[in-house]
């Protein structure tokens, strides 16, 4: 019976180091640092351990262009054990994504795009009413229950074109019928951001909420719009979804100063912005939030505990004896690095978050 020991790790919530003992793919024991015996000892004296990182907004259909990538290149190879594909596929192609989830090393879950065509053929998938088939969406959500954990609607001008708010209303109806929450992408209007936010309910997600384009969460006085505050009071979930064009340091800093913080930090990563920036990895996005003043613990909580809570899978956000091993090892490395947002604005990081490995069950994946 193979026993792996993570020697002398610590969490972000305590300076106390300990040995984490893994056996048969489970967390078998938590012991005093330096005392645990095992077949394989991994020296983690300079590292942190957390429950496995969760990226709540990725695009993992590897054949799609431009919004696609290999699940494991944006997952376990970057220290991320769970990824949520944010609407790459509608009903017409969900089977393909499901099959990918069965072969990927990374745990892959999905949001169903309410447009049956998804993002494979074109990127204005909500611009024609006939592409929204409510009954087909309901049947697809039922067929892939457990894999599909919510719905996705991209409600910005380039996607909906002349349809305006109509696709959002359709998405809300489907959501009510399938009893799953809705993630809404916001961007350039119309529809106006107020109109979008006012339709969202508790547990619905607004992603890209820190984008720097017009139609964002700030008014002309650089104050938060009242509709955002109302949405937060209703329990609407704020997700970063950095992406190529959807994260602004300036907007994020103003929101932080006003006491509005992300519920989850996610990347909106796909092949182009992984290789060419400005995203590169979930760890880089996390580092940007440290640059603007969030603590390491606040950042880690937003890719672990808070994401797991939204998924309704608390076991993915904890380290507990008896649970399946679901862990990320990482360091915070002193390094001056220029970080770039989606508008080309820069901030200087004095230290960066660097994944060292991911563990799912009995498998270790080095970063």
UniProtKB/TrEMBL annotation:
InterPro entries: Deacetylase_Atu3266-like, EF_0837-like, Metal-dep_hydrolase_composite, Metal_Hydrolase. It is an enzyme of class 3 (hydrolase). The keyword Flavoprotein does not apply. SUPFAM superfamilies: Composite domain of metallo-dependent hydrolases, Metallo-dependent hydrolases. The keyword Hydrolase applies. Keywords: Hydrolase. Its EC number is 3.5.2.3. NCBIfam families: EF_0837, PRK09237.1. This is Amidohydrolase/deacetylase family metallohydrolase. It comes from Paenibacillus provencensis. The lineage of its organism: Bacteria, Bacillati, Bacillota, Bacilli, Bacillales.
